[in-house]
Amino acid sequence: MRLLKIVLVVAGLCAATAFASPTAPRNGAEYTTLKTPQPVQAQGKKVEVIEFFMYHCPACYALEPAMLEWVKKQGDNISFRRIHLPLTGENDPEAHMFLTLEAMKLEEGLHAKILSTWHVERKRLKSDADNIDWAVKNGVDKEKYTATYNSFAVMTRLKNAGRVASTYEVNSTPTMIVDGRYLTNPTMVDSANPGIPRPQLGAATLQVLDALVEQARKGK
Description:
alpha+beta; Glutaredoxin; 5-stranded mixed beta sheet; 9 helices; globular
């Protein structure tokens, strides 16, 4: 009888492991559904995907190459954008820099350079002065950058950045929001699938995104 119980327990564990899969994500495991769905900017049949990130975040930097390939692969299926999580609150210099460059329509072109500054050159952009100095050294007009940096529009968005993150129920990075409804991140995928090797966690997270995008498309 004892042997039979052990066999049944082992079989149950094997079945649970087999059921866990990034290609068939489960609500409450590999992803969660937001309590209050948020409006999306994507139009038509495109599915909005938002990546909450931080410039200094090692996990964001590690995911970046695969994420860019994934966005390229999805093509017209999705509308992709980033939101910088304001780690230190209303005066967070990283989020301030992101919002300034985004307002100037320069963030996308400089995104890789900023990440390289943090993670390859190991230079920390931790203050307003650091940000302005970096921007000027990388070809941004100082007067225009400073004016935008201190503009009412950017300061208002910076002040509200924490509220935006809270609305999306985001408290860590990288975290992805699909169609204003579904939230996932590598930590959730790892917890739900403990057998995934660490080097494959990024790919597994993107598999979850694939499934969520398809789920959202079917609901349109």
